[in-house]
Amino acid sequence: MLNFSFANPTKIHFGEQQIALIKNEIPADAKVLVTYGGGSIKSNGVYDQVVDALSEHTWFEFAGIEPNPSYQTCMKAVALVKEQHIDYILAVGGGSVADGSKFIAAAANYDGEPWDILSKGGEIKSAIALGVVLTLPATGSESNGNSVVSNLDTHEKLAFASPLVLPRFAVLDPAVTFSLPNRQVANGIVDAFVHTMEQYLTYDVGAKLQDRFAEGILMTLIEEGPKAFSEPDNYQVRANIMWSATMALNGLIGAGVPQDWATHMIGHEMTAMYGLDHAQTLAIVLPRMMAAQKETKRGKILQYAERVLGLDISDKDAAIEQAITATEGFFHSVNMPTRLSDYQLGEEVADKIVQQLERHGMTAIGERGQVTLDTSHAILLASV
Ligand code: NZQ
Ligand code: ZN
Fold it and tell me: Were 147 and a residue from 99, 251, 258, 317 both cysteine, which residue would form a disulfide, CB within 3.0 to 4.6 Å?
């Protein structure tokens, strides 16, 4: 096992009607900014629950944080934070609202041009306190320190991470996910699945418990994911998916193990360039990434084949092929397309994305730096 330091201080309130608890989590004298997206929270009752919970607080609101939150929108919220002397941000929405709010929290206290936080690794010395009411299980953003923000002017989608933007608390009520459109349900399941794979499907370092945690998440998503479509009103299904997504990226399964993230790096460029949803890009890239890396990842693909998929691995080469096909089949089982051509995109994507990867220094990605620009190019060509 590799050395690690682990802390996840985000307090989770999980279950129905837990939104009311934010009343106790945010200091009574705080000046709160409630941030949200395009309005889904107004039609599914979440906004009303938040308003009730904040009835004794002083609060303001900022709407319109879009999917793949933009720097441009976030900076408008930063201006409001400064104008109103906000000292607590409550993000109500999916990963985009959570990520955008993390950037707002850091940018408001940043000395200099806040885009530098993303483009130059500008150091964050302090950030405004943040809480999250999660409405879309997918990213794990509700209890991690990561944020991904896009720049509409430059077509860049860049990430930063800081423990200072870790949410102080997060409310996860699976009932609020009943209103998700199918496309977003699928996005969430696939994103959580690929997060787990990025931390599991690397090489063995003897981290038995992390492996089994990861396998548990993958098996739960494979079992419960399709039920979110066949039994859309089943609360337990939603609860299992929601908790799996949080556990997939809260630091636990990634502690003490090598991590890959090459699929994500290529995917982020695809979203920035072509506007595909985050998880749509991952479902296209991962099967081809597995195929391209089947030698470097051989041991772990076989472990995944046997323990997660229950395949007979006596013929190892055949088992690896079956595991890749089954992974793509799982994405299809949650109605997620897996080809560039499903989005009317073709071979032209390979050159464009590789240019962007090069621009961002992503020339040797993956757990061993083994995914070169040529490998990424070949993966994209094979994904048409
Ligand atoms: O904006 P509203 O109206 O709220 O609608 C949203 C949005 O259109 C809708 N939605 C959310 N909850 C809903 C709902 N609609 C009905 N009922 C509900 N309960 O869903 C749409 C998509 O929301 P979004 O927040 O964009 O989705 P997601 O949670 O998948 O977040 C994606 C973003 O997170 C980043 C991605 O790159 C992308 O920008 N990621 C963040 C990570 C992190 N912080 O650790 C890691 C991930 O790998 C990922 O990169
Ligand atoms: Zn992701």
Answer: 99
Over residues 282-299, the pLDDT tens digits come to 999 999 999 999 999 999
- Span 31-70, pLDDT tens digits: 999 999 999 999 999 999 999 999 999 999 999 999 999 9
Distance 331 CA to ligand 2 centre (A): 14
Output the ligand 1 site: residues, CB below 6 A.
37-41, 44, 67-68, 93-97, 99, 135-136, 138-141, 144, 146-148, 176-177, 179-180, 184, 187-188, 191, 249, 264, 278
Q: How far apart, in whole angstroms, are the C-alpha atoms of residue 289 and residue 271? A: 17
Cβ pair 253, 217 in contact under 8 A: yes
Taking only the tens place, the pLDDT of each residue in 102-148 is: 999 999 999 999 999 999 999 999 999 999 999 999 999 999 999 99
Mean pLDDT of the chain: 98
Spatial separation of the C-alpha atoms in residues 381 and 376, rounded to whole Å = 9
What pLDDT, on a 0 to 100 scale, did the predictor assign at position 151? 96
What one-character DSSP code corresponds to residue 70? B
Instruction: Tell me which DSSP letter residue 123 carries.
Output: P
Per-residue model confidence (pLDDT) at position 273: 95
Domains of the chain, first to last: 11-175 (3.40.50.1970), 183-382 (1.20.1090.10)
